[in-house]
Structure formats: C-alpha cells, structure tokens
Amino acid sequence: MQSAPVPSPVMRLELVPIILFAAFAATPTLAAYSGAEGYILSLLTRVMIFGIAAMSLDLILGYGALVSFGHAAFLGIGGYAAGILASHGIEDALIQIPVVLAASAAFAFLTGAISLRTKGVYFIMITLAFGQMLFFLATSLAAYGGDDGMTLSARSLVAGWGVLKNDIAFYWMALLCLLGTYGLSRAVVASRFGRVLRGTRENTIRMQAIGFQPFRYQLVAYVLSGMMAGLAGFLLANQAEFVSPAFMTWQRSGELIFMVVLGGLGSLHGAVIGAAAFLLLEEFLPEILHAVSFFLSDDIRSRLAENWKMVFGPLLILIVLFARGGIMGLLRRGRHD
What parts of the sequence cross the membrane (predicted)? Predict the structure, then answer.
C-alpha cells in the first residue's frame, strides 16, 4: 500500500495567503468573545490598510526593483481627496473612490513619466522630492487645515447609507479592498505584463534587445501601484476620520519600504505580513519592554517604555540583516531544512 505523497515546501507556502486572509476573516467572530472587540478590530483594520499600501509598493519594488521613497504621497492623495470632497458635501464613497483613484493615477503618471527616466539613487531622490513637494503643498492648504490637518465629519456613505460608521462593516470593507488589490496584483504579476516587468528588473538592456520597451511597462506598474496606495489612503482617512500632511511624510514612505523588506520582497502577501509585523511590534513593544525589564527600577522601566523606539529601530534592522528574504524567506528556509 502506497503512502500519500508529502506536500512539497512550495505547495505549503502557497497556503500562506489563504491562512492569512482566513485569519483576517475570522477576526470579527473571535474578537466578539475577547472583551476588547473595538480595539482588536481597529488595530487589524489599520494592519490591512497598511497591508494594501505595502503591497502596492511591493508591486514596483519587489517585481520592478523601483525603490520609491515618496510612496506615502499617494496615501495623502487618497486621504485628502476624501476629506476635501466631504468638506464640499460629496460624502458618498461611490463618488469619492473613483476620484481618489483618478487623482492617484494622474499624479503617478506625471511623476512616474519623469522619475522613470532616471535609475538607482537618482530615482530614489526624485521620488522623495515629489513626495516632499506634495507634503509641503498639503501644509499650505489653509482652507483644509494646513499643518493641523482636517477632520472628517463622519465616514463616507455608501449609496447614501452610513453603513461604514459601524466598525465591523468598515472592517469588512477594508478586507474586501485588501482581497481585491491582492487579486489584481497577483493577476498582474502572473500575466505577460508581469513577466516583462520582472525581466526589466533582471536585465533592462536584454528586454530592449528582444523588442520590449521597459519604460512603458514600468510606468503602467507605477500608476497601478499609486492607485492602490491612494485607495489605502482613502481607507486610512475614513478609519481615523482625520487626514493631515503626516500621511505623506518621507518617514512614512520609509516605513512602507521597511514593511515590504520585513515581509519579503516580491511575494505580495509577504508585504501584508510585513505590515502586520511592523504595526504589531510598534503597538506592543512598549508593554513587552516594561514586562521583561522587571528586574530594573521603576524609573528605568518607565524610561525604557517611553523610549521604546530606540529598541524598535535596531530590532527591525537585526531582523532584516539576519532574516534574508524577510519573514517569507524564513518560512522558505524552514520548509527546506
């Protein structure tokens, strides 16, 4: 009698996104029995929103080797588009989302058409410059809060219905957007377009020699990436019911890059895992430090908890240095050992 074949490591790793999205789907039910439903839903909604933003960056960074240091600008575009429209009485998401996507696509097309004519560190610096340009533009919008940002009177409506005011309904909308962007990104990567994009990452000159024009493919990928990040900005503004220039700082762009690298470049769901790891560490590290430093005086423990970022930064760097390929890289090596 023959034994059943053992699943290969690759097959097992293909289950990772299924398990990940199943965990997100099961969270509202499990959170209802935790006694902290509102907190858990809010935290994981934020994780999914930044998962969308990180995944959008992974599309150009992991598959196109385009290191954008101004990607947070699209978060700001999405948030401000929703806030400005709402301030003028246009509160329906069915109108806001197309405007968000159009504005993000237009900014991505204009800046990408210029940025993609450069390479390497020059591309990094010019995307940073465009991001900072938008940041300073937002701070100068006195009619919409300027430096202080602007508060949304309420979350967006859906066909005139205020369903998103309910945290559980908003959680499901964020999950739906995450699944949609993941499905779109996966389809793009698996298509002929995605193969050409990966080819330009490996050898641009060779792709040109066989008849492809890498610039066009990179520009389309950049526009798609910007639109997805703009959608994340729309969701982020709705969750917080607030938008400010802080959405689009270069530090936020750096955090998105860190999320992608932490999860594993070129895996899409790895970017979501990286966003989850980053945000959960950021959320719980102060409490962990306070708990593990029980042998220290109360004054030192409180100072350590207050300055937790001095531990957070080196910890992330160590993870990236010693976990080549990020979290997904660790999983791959674990399956082969």
Answer: 41-61, 68-87, 93-114, 121-144, 170-194, 215-236, 256-281, 311-331
pLDDT in tens, 123-161: 999 999 999 999 999 999 999 989 999 999 889 999 989
Specify whether the CB–CB gap between 218 and 200 falls below 8 A: yes
CB atoms within 10 A of CB 205: 8
Q: How many domains does the chain have?
A: 1
What DSSP designation does 156 have? Answer: P
**Residue 151's beta-bridge partner residues?**
242
Q: Residue 1's pLDDT is what?
A: 44
127 occurs within a structural domain: yes
Show the domain range for 71.
Answer: 20-248
How far from 117 is each of 112, 121, 127, CA to CA, in Å? 8, 12, 12
Q: CA-to-CA distance for 255 and 274, rounded, in angstroms?
A: 10
Is there a domain that residue 253 lies in?
no
Residue 64 pairs in a beta bridge with none
Q: Is 297 buried (19+), middle (13-18) or exposed (0-12) by CB count in 10 A?
A: exposed
* Max Cα distance, the chain (Å): 77
Buried b (16+ CB within 10 A) or exposed e, 47-83: bbbbbbbbbbbbbbbbbbbbbbbbbbbbbbbbbbbbb
- In sequence order, the 6+-apart residues with CB closer than 8 A to the CB of 298 are none
In whole angstroms, give the CA distance from residue 82 to residue 237. 7
Residue 334 has what pLDDT? 61
Q: How many residues does the chain have?
A: 337
CA distance 204 to 222: 16
Taking the C-alpha atoms of residue 80 and residue 111, their distance in angstroms, rounded to an integer, is: 18
Q: Does residue 329 belong to any structural domain of this protein?
A: no
Nearest to 94 by CA among 183, 43, 157, 164: 157
Beta bridge partners of 150: 243
User: Can you tell me the distance from the alpha carbon of 128 to that of 71, in angstroms, rounded to the nearest whole number?
Assistant: 8
Q: Which residues of the chain have pLDDT under 70?
A: 1-12, 294-295, 301, 305, 334-337
